[in-house]
């Protein structure tokens, strides 16, 4: 799809530009030391190693904190904060790596601090320029066929300009059969006939893509015009595909069977992929356990001191959840609520839940309470990446109220997931619907590359404390 391709190209341009800026900033920092008479004759090999190390480190960490995500919804101060975090982490990474691996080529001790300072200043200036211009993107012009209920989804879910950063929405065009009373309210509507006037309109406005979003399909679309437009290179996209592409979710409430049948994705896993996923998850679980067991031990001791010794409650919380293909298993978590939290039965967890203990609020925020689930991964009950497993009591309710909810159980549940990154809090049926849109997107597009992206982006959640 053109818009998706443009988005990827813009992200790639940002990566290349950032890498070049970082390398030059490091190089000019070395020159500055020389001008100040502080350079201790740093050799060329050391200079190249330091420049490359900073460029690779900063761009990789920028990716982990979401700076190359086209769907990033942040004010500019949020971008500055991410750049600052990325540069500071890179300082420690490069310093440790160069000292440990390249001792013969040790750089001047002031080079790294000066480079980081200059990197932050130049990247902020560059991102300010990009943030306020469209210099790195060539946005396609799109027009929406439809002004009714289905078309209004774009107006309601993509209200802000940042939500439309990948395209220019020229107008909505009425189609017979649209439910106008519940449709478009504030968007620009072009009242033109769907005949030669429509063909001329597409040429005059230099339209690159047409979104099909009318309420009634049969006998209402200008088939000849769409056919000619397609032959001339104009992309014709269904509303569901458009929303999936631009928002990273599937509009469950708009889905219809034929779309599922004919759309790409929802592919069954091959045996090789299944085996590779299993051993990759085992390796990652052991790797993470190796580094986090001290944190887990300290957390267990704090929970015990906080109220465990007094109430006799376990520091671990075991709860039944629904796994792949509906199979039940017991999930393990550090206990973050009072022992009597569910004396009246199962309840949705809510924001600022008064059942959460003082230490529980902290470990939830930074996802420390999830660490015991590494045991579930080692048992093969969960993966690192996948939809969050729900409780059987809630699944019964959600299956009845939400269409396609059971389809999220086609893959193993995970510690981290696409829904958690994009809709991190859910405490009702309505929230579950929103998360389901992202879960089904993951089920449809699951791949090692997407898993890697989610794994890297999860670092952002931990760094900025965006957990519950």
From TrEMBL:
Pfam families linked to this entry: Bac_transf
TM segment ranges: 12-38, 44-67, 79-98, 110-130, 278-305
UniProt keywords, alphabetically: Membrane, Transferase, Transmembrane, Transmembrane helix
Domain of life per record: Bacteria
Major place of residence: membrane
Location in or out of the cell: Membrane
Every Bacterial sugar transferase domain range: 280-463
Bilayer disposition of the protein: Multi-pass membrane protein
Stored InterPro entries: Bact_transf (IPR003362), EPS_sugar_tfrase (IPR017475), Sugar_tfrase_EpsB_2 (IPR017464)
Family: Belongs to the bacterial sugar transferase family.
Protein name in the entry: TIGR03013 family PEP-CTERM/XrtA system glycosyltransferase
Lineage of origin: Bacteria, Pseudomonadati, Pseudomonadota, Gammaproteobacteria, Alteromonadales
